[in-house]
Automatic annotation (TrEMBL):
<keyword id="KW-0479">Metal-binding</keyword>
<dbReference type="InterPro" id="IPR036188">
    <property type="entry name" value="FAD/NAD-bd_sf"/>
</dbReference>
<keyword id="KW-0408">Iron</keyword>
<dbReference type="InterPro" id="IPR039650">
    <property type="entry name" value="HdrA-like"/>
</dbReference>
<keyword id="KW-0411">Iron-sulfur</keyword>
<dbReference type="GO" id="GO:0051539">
    <property type="term" value="F:4 iron, 4 sulfur cluster binding"/>
</dbReference>
<dbReference type="Pfam" id="PF12831">
    <property type="entry name" value="FAD_oxidored"/>
</dbReference>
<dbReference type="GO" id="GO:0016491">
    <property type="term" value="F:oxidoreductase activity"/>
</dbReference>
<keyword id="KW-0004">4Fe-4S</keyword>
<dbReference type="GO" id="GO:0046872">
    <property type="term" value="F:metal ion binding"/>
</dbReference>
<protein>
    <submittedName>
        <fullName>FAD-dependent oxidoreductase</fullName>
    </submittedName>
</protein>
<keyword id="KW-0560">Oxidoreductase</keyword>
Length: 467
């Protein structure tokens, strides 16, 4: 490969803040709101012209459960934003979903507007259309980050940095170590999600009722696959979210072999994803009553990415912690979502493992702290975990909770001029609980409430209902 020596450049410092959050997905939004509400001057940097991450940019159609089947375990800022979206998405939307906390469909345009307002309302500043290009290091600390946008290249300096890019981009630029890939180097597939209008919910439901077809229409999918009208892979129509009686979001079908940190892969997936949507629309129109007249109104700005880098943190959350519903002394969130690993190739199967209703495990602060860096914290789907736990922790409600924890920790650290590892965990937990987060019935008391043991995932394989 050819190389070029790029000349050194003196750059202006365009922004100074206590806390910089890179990435405006669920983790970054909650982090910025928490840091700003707790008094830190906060800047959120986002590559797109709006926030929401996968839930808006990739059109992921619904929020995963906020509850453990019995009670909400994701509370605080995430739950607050969910309730605001329900109220502002229109009367009929509110009537349908006001009682619901699990699998609430996403009204993308309402959500984008709410995120703008709520992040700005917290006192945080936003810089859209901006990517982080370089990290300036001094010893174990980040001194500044080089950003690039239409206005050119500048430096942003802060006391504390929150990486909420989903891909741990900031951590990668800072040289943080990552978890090794598993033996097969497998990653979950991507999905190009989309929204259609012109569907007929009543007709569709009547068809299901009359034919006794399962909601997922497995027989029809299998027939279409045999006739070459759908590609091999996912055996069900899943991830269907009715936003209105005629508008439906889809998270259906997979794009295999995509590394979301590789731009060529993302490019190829965008092109293939749009082609796959055309195939699926034809299938829906021809095979499924209620979908005869659908019209594609929007596909993701990018392919949805479920899994990329996982950092190596001070603690790595592993599947045994998950299945034993472990509580840690430094918990900053709880997770009850099932382990949900999508097939890595068309011949493979889904891997699903549920906790019993009412159970959750703790998410320790240490799994957000990257080894070797004092003023950097990671929030969202790239925290330190093994693959199975990432398959559970990655969903949006959890990312809100981890984001709130990261932002709150940053505000404590900024005030005291200390690094993330020097934050007193009891103070952080106390603040989180005071500000609405749920850390279990006995926060900070180490325990395991379920029998652990070896998990044989193959026995648990089935397809996921939604996402
Ligand atoms: C197809 C699919 C279906 C899913 N289904 C569901 C579901 O039904 N329900 C659910 O709750 N979850 C679902 N998930 C999981 C969930 O959407 C994501 O895991 C979650 O959004 C991760 O949140 P995050 O904040 O960590 O990162 P993201 O949502 O990925 O947000 C990261 C943000 O950072 C920005 N960014 C990234 N890199 C940079 C950079 N270098 N500089 C500046 N900005 C940057 C991005 O533009 C983005 O806005 C699904 C995911 C996929 C892909």
């Amino acid at each position: 490969m050819q190389t070029v020596l790029v000349p050194e450049q003196t750059l202006n410092v365009s922004h100074l803040a206590d806390v910089v959050v890179v990435g405006g997905g669920p983790a970054g939004i909650a982090a910025a709101i928490a840091a700003a509400r707790n008094g830190s001057s906060t800047l959120l940097i986002e590559q797109r012209g709006y926030m929401g991450g996968m839930g808006t940019a990739a059109l992921v159609p619904a929020f995963c459960p906020f509850t453990d089947g019995e009670k909400p375990v994701i509370r605080g800022i995430g739950l607050e934003l969910l309730e605001i979206m329900k109220r502002e998405a229109g009367e009929s939307y509110y009537d349908r979903f006001k009682q619901q906390l699990d699998w609430v469909p996403i009204d993308v345009e309402t959500l984008k507007r709410i995120y703008d307002r709520e992040v700005l309302g917290s006192g945080a500043h936003i810089l859209f259309h901006t990517m982080v290009e370089q990290v300036l290091l001094k010893d174990d600390a980040i001194e500044g980050i080089v950003i690039v946008n239409k206005s050119g290249r500048t430096v942003v300096k802060a006391k504390l940095y929150i990486d909420a890019t989903g891909d741990a981009d900031l951590a990668a630029l800072a040289g943080v170590p990552f978890q090794p890939k598993d033996d097969n180097g497998e990653l979950q597939p991507g999905t190009m999600c989309y929204v259609v209008a012109g569907a007929d919910k009543a007709r569709f439901e009547k068809f299901l009722e009359e034919t006794g077809e399962q909601r997922h229409l497995e027989n029809i999918v299998s027939k279409a696959q045999q006739q070459g009208d759908l590609p091999a892979g996912r055996k069900r129509i899943s991830g269907m979210a009715w936003i209105t009686e005629t508008v439906v979001g889809f998270n259906f079908g997979h794009l295999f072999g995509i590394d979301g940190t590789n731009t060529s892969d993302l490019t190829q997936a965008a092109i293939e994803g749009r082609q796959l949507i055309q195939t699926q629309i034809r299938f829906l129109r021809n095979y499924i009553p209620g979908f005869e007249n659908i019209h594609l109104v929007h596909s993701g700005d990018q392919v949805g990415i479920r899994e990329t880098r996982r950092i190596l943190g001070d603690y790595t959350l592993v599947v045994d912690d998950y299945i034993s519903a472990r509580t840690f002394s430094d918990d900053v969130a709880r997770n009850s979502y099932f382990i949900d690993i999508h097939l890595a190739n068309a011949q493979s199967t889904m891997t699903i493992k549920h906790l019993p209703k009412g159970y959750s495990h703790g998410v320790p602060y240490r799994c957000m702290l990257p080894q070797g860096k004092s003023n950097l914290i990671i929030a969202g789907r790239s925290v330190s975990s093994d693959r199975p736990v990432q398959g559970s922790l990655r969903v949006m409600p959890n990312c809100f909770a981890m984001g709130q924890a990261a932002g709150t920790a940053a505000s404590i650290a900024a005030e005291l001029d200390i690094g993330f590892r020097d934050v007193k965990i009891q103070e952080l937990q106390h603040k989180l609980i005071q500000q609405g987060a749920y850390l279990g019935d006995t926060p900070g008391v180490e325990s395991t409430t379920l029998q652990g043991g070896t998990v044989v995932f193959a026995e648990e394989c089935e397809d996921s209902d939604h996402q």
